[in-house]
Design brief:
single chain, 128 residues, alpha+beta, Nuclear Transport Factor 2, Chain: A, six-stranded mixed beta sheet, globular
């Protein structure tokens, strides 16, 4: 599988809440890098850290985030997912965040992901 295929499979599993598939494409030692100036920003390490980040985003929003995969760009060891992330939260402006999620692939699994927001200030305001 190419890095682009792995990223496609990951976002398909996220969309359908397919935990077995998600676990098959994420390294046990995954590191998720979240930008911003809000409580969820920073490094989230390992499957527990990744799952914890996902649980916190669901808990803070009205039903979780929706991630629309627009395109995937692939190389030999990295792939970038071009996405639109939307969510609502009581007392906040809705989140409508175009992002690039850059994934580093090692041994056929995602080892690291860096999130890059189009408008980091608005994203941070939503998550504060």
């Amino acid at each position: 599988m190419t890095p682009a295929d792995i990223v496609q499979k990951t976002y398909g599993a996220l969309k359908t809440n397919d935990l077995p598939t998600l676990l098959s494409v994420l390294s046990p030692d995954i590191v998720l890098h979240v930008p911003g100036s809000h409580p969820l920003a920073g490094r989230h390490e390992g499957l527990a850290g990744f799952a914890g980040f996902m649980e916190k985003t669901r808990a803070l929003t009205d039903g979780g985030e929706t991630i629309e995969l627009i395109d995937v760009l692939g190389g030999e060891t990295h792939a970038a997912a071009y996405c639109r992330v939307t969510a609502t939260r009581a007392g906040r402006e809705p989140l409508d965040n175009t992002t690039v999620h850059l994934a580093r692939i090692a041994d056929g699994r995602i080892a690291e992901i860096w999130l890059h927001n189009w408008d980091n200030q608005s994203a941070s305001a939503f998550w504060r």
